[in-house]
Amino acid sequence: MIRVHVDHLTPGMVLARPIPVPSHPGRYLLQRGQEIPLNLVPRLKRWGIYEVWIQYPQLEFLEQLFDPELEEQQRELYHRVRCNFQRSMESTGAALDWQGFEEAVTSLNEALQRNKFSAMLQKLQAYDSYLMAHSTNVCYLSMLLGKQLEGYLIQQREWKDPREAKNLRHLGLGLLLHDLGKVRLDPKVLNKPGKLTPEEMEYVRQHPVLGYEMVRGHVPPATAVVVLHHHQRWDGRGYPRRQDPASGEWLPPLKERQIPVFARIATVVDVFDAATTHRCYSAAKPPIRVLHEMRTWCQGMFDPVIEQAFYRIIPPFPIGKVVQLSNGMEAVVVDFNPEEPYRPKVQILRTEQGHRVANPSLNEMDLAIYQDLFIQRVDDQDVTPYYPEAFWHSTPRPEYVSA
Ligand SMILES: [Fe+2]
Ligand SMILES: [Fe+2]
What we know:
Layout: E1 2-5, E2 19-20, E3 28-30, H1 41-46, E4 51-54, H2 68-90, H3 98-114, H4 130-148, H5 150-156, H6 162-165, H7 168-177, H8 187-190, H9 198-204, H10 207-215, H11 221-229, E5 242-243, E6 250-251, H12 261-276, H13 287-296, H14 304-311, E7 322-325, E8 330-333, E9 345-350, E10 364-366, E11 375-378, E12 381-382
Antiparallel strand pairs: 1-4, 2-3, 5-6, 7-8, 7-11, 8-9, 9-10, 11-12
The structure holds fe (ii) ion (2 copies).
């Protein structure tokens, strides 16, 4: 099976994985083995589905990379967030099901701990609300990242018992609720298709404090500070501004290790997920491009230890993606290598001359070995400008990519 962008679907393509209905866990719009009617594409897009899995001979083994239990927990969590946030939007006084949130995060964390994969291979599949899908995705992503950072968490939270210091449930709960304050804001401003005015920006920037006020006293303090500080940057930029409650004077911003470590993790996963998800004002960017922007535009924003760990869990080229290599061959990405994220294993689908390869599994190439080759195009887009500078130390740089 391969991933296909919904805009590239052609008649006769058959689903390799089912498409769930976002509002009903356990219900499916289409089952595996069904042909996808092209008139469904607008509905798929409304549900945040921009890629689907299509059957492809000899590539069924990719199915093993998915953990159905993890998928189910993600959907369950989404459903819970959806019901709760909705209620809270409709009435300011509505009580949130704090215990339900904790239970759902605990189940997702347990599924994650049992899962043998340590990279981000599966996001929530279908959703009908950006805010709630984003909350679910960053909850999962933060715990996945936290799992890689256990030693660092113990060191950074030294006043805690080590077992408690690396407890990821409080982190995940923080991410699940990090944007809760947005339910108190005017959806017209939040979902505005264009650029926000400075006044609107200031208005939206209230959400961490609003959220903090909503969660305080209901969740552990380590969770509440994630809500308050998830927009605080490592170098001191960001918000909210701090004020002395007694004198009303402005205080210097929190920076570096003064920022709680869970909030530092939140900043990284929040920026990444927002940019890789389709929004009302911007299309989803491919992960390789977002990783590039994080390394360049976002310099100084992230804790360097957390940032480096993050790059080891995010495949720049998602597994199952059809790509074009620098020698003109068409290939499918079949593995992720955290040591060399930009050099995954691929299987050749078409030769340089465009002839279809009968058995791709007999034509597997580890790009970590073939260092003169690289992935050049994804979804008809040239991705070479997005490689990290260090990549070109061992691979010939095409002339048009500036040094
Ligand atoms: Fe936020
Ligand atoms: Fe966010």
